[in-house]
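Hello again, I could really use a second opinion on something today. My current little project is about how a certain protein chain folds up. You're getting the sequence in one-letter code plus the fold written as tokens. Here's the protein in full, and shout if anything looks odd to you:
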Amino acid sequence: MKKLLTISIAAYNQEKYIKQTLDSLIDETIIDELEIFVVDDGANDHTLEIAQQYAAKYPQSIFPIHKENGGYGSTVNYSIAHMSGKYFRMLDGDDWYETKEFCNFVLALKNTDADVVITPYYEGITGKMKCVRWDVPWGETIRIESMDARQTFGMWAITYKSDVIRKSGMVLPPMFYIDQIYNIVPFAYSETISFLNHAVYCYRTGQEGQSISRAARIRHTCDILNLCVWQCDFYEKLKSSCGKNLNYIASRIGGDAYQFSFNTLIMYPVSKDNLNRLIEFEKTISRLSPDIYNKAKEVGRWRFFIYLLRKTNYRLYWFMRFVPDGFLYKIWWLYKRHRLNSRNTLEKRH
């Protein structure tokens, strides 16, 4: 039976949360429309057994999968390889969907044929979550080429048509932060985007050991830099083949992946070696993709700082020795909170 929506749940050692995750997806009015892969990526707890209990109740909708540990991307790759739904979206094993809004979303999904579907999402710690929305034409479907190229969406907001993912041939590599690939690649093979005003995803933040933390980013710097190089290479190949939505993809990589790498590098202590590392990274990206190198000073939250750093021939870097350790990381989070509060204010006005 062909499903409307395939959901990929990455479930590595998530026995603490997986019941809440699965309960949030179950409603008798929509369960038959869903194909839910709970991918146990080599866990050593009871995640698989719990998922199997749910599968016994809903054998046509919930599919527990056990495989050897291969990293986050491998769980998504498995689900993509086996998906039968018209649409596809992701869900982390420690997050959940807002059930009522999810039901409304599934019902609305029946009436769209857009390549990409965007929905609002909740973000924060349990009990204090805030809704993230954008200034977009809710309820409408538009061509991606006409969209504001500065507008970016994370995996918590994105649902793709499965045929678009297949057409892209996307296979996520074995590294951290692969959601930055997932958030971009299918856009190169999409034409239309729909905005459904149903806040579905609940993204739990403030977790100990989350990959977005300062310590984790420093620990996985090589993955972060390699990810940016990967995306630059993807963009250049797309450009040479006259691919779609080049302006959007260049803005996304320059404003997100590049600046994520840049911001990670300036978290390191101020030193000549670390400055040289930063300069070498800049040279590498400038050589690989001049478009992405230039976009980094035009879009994104760090664009002005990058512009000034280059304009001063990196002399500005040395002033960072007077900045307290972790200060720029804190500024980044304050900026993110400001944007979140601004979105909520806009939402109340509307």
Remarks:
- The CA atoms of residues 224 and 261 lie 6 Å apart.
- Confidence is low (pLDDT under 50) at residues 343-350.
